[in-house]
Amino acid sequence: MANTGDVKVGSILRYNGELCQVTEYIHRTPGNLRAFYQAKMKNLKNGKIVENRFRAGEEVELARVEFKELQFIYLEGDSLVVMDNETFEQVYVPAEMFGETAKLLKEGMLVKVAFENDTPIVGEGPTFVELEITYTEPGVKGDTATNTLKPATVETGAIVNVPLFVNQGEVIKIDTRDWSYAGKVK
């Protein structure tokens, strides 16, 4: 068992029998009351956000989680098939664990998966991906002066907004946290 001082943002707790990932964790000391920790947690099974106050020094149950870096091989139904590069073991991970980032994953990319007792519980894609644009309206000379964006379809089928000067066939870098254009790849 651990106490509230061992918890930080990103920790995975067993709270009310469910696995929850801490998304916000603030230590509060109100004037005439005892100190407490205000925690906002995301339930890993159903995605609901739970808020709770923990007393300072209260015991909490940290889940034993092992993170592995795996290679994304292909999509099969609603699951991503990933492979451990050391043991060559293939694991099926539900695509919903990656959220919207799953649409930006290309075969061969490395992803992080958290396991508890050989069961995948959290999936995380790379922060930046490099993808080729398969379709977008052609750019016109002089389109670099404004911050206007246009939709572009990338090789995975996802649609991202790019500046007007970006053309079809170019490889761009995309930030997977907010799907924003991060630049051209040379």
List keywords for this structure.
5-stranded antiparallel beta sheet, 3 domains, SH3 type barrels, OB fold (Dihydrolipoamide Acetyltransferase, E2P), mainly beta, 186 residues, 16 strands
What's the CATH architecture of the largest domain?
Roll
Main sheet record: 5 strands, antiparallel
C-alpha termini separation: 50 Å
CATH class of the largest domain: Mainly Beta
Structural class: mainly beta
Task: Write a brief structural summary.
The protein is mainly β and 186 residues long. Helices cover 0% and strands 53% of the residues. Strand 10 and strand 11 (119-124) form a beta hairpin.
Could you explain the architecture of this structure?
The N and C termini lie far apart (50 Å). With 186 residues, the chain is mainly β. It folds into three domains: 2-60, SH3 type barrels, CATH 2.30.30; 66-124, Nucleic acid-binding proteins (OB fold (Dihydrolipoamide Acetyltransferase, E2P), Beta Barrel), CATH 2.40.50.140; 128-184, Nucleic acid-binding proteins (OB fold (Dihydrolipoamide Acetyltransferase, E2P)). It has a five-stranded antiparallel β-sheet with strand order 9-8-7-10-11, with no helix packed on it. It has strands spanning 2-3, 12-15, 18-28, 36-43, 49-55, 59-60, 66-76, 79-83, 90-94, 110-116, 119-124, 128-136, 149-154, 159-163, 171-175, 180-184. The chain is flat, with a radius of gyration of 21 Å. Strand 3 and strand 4 form a beta hairpin.
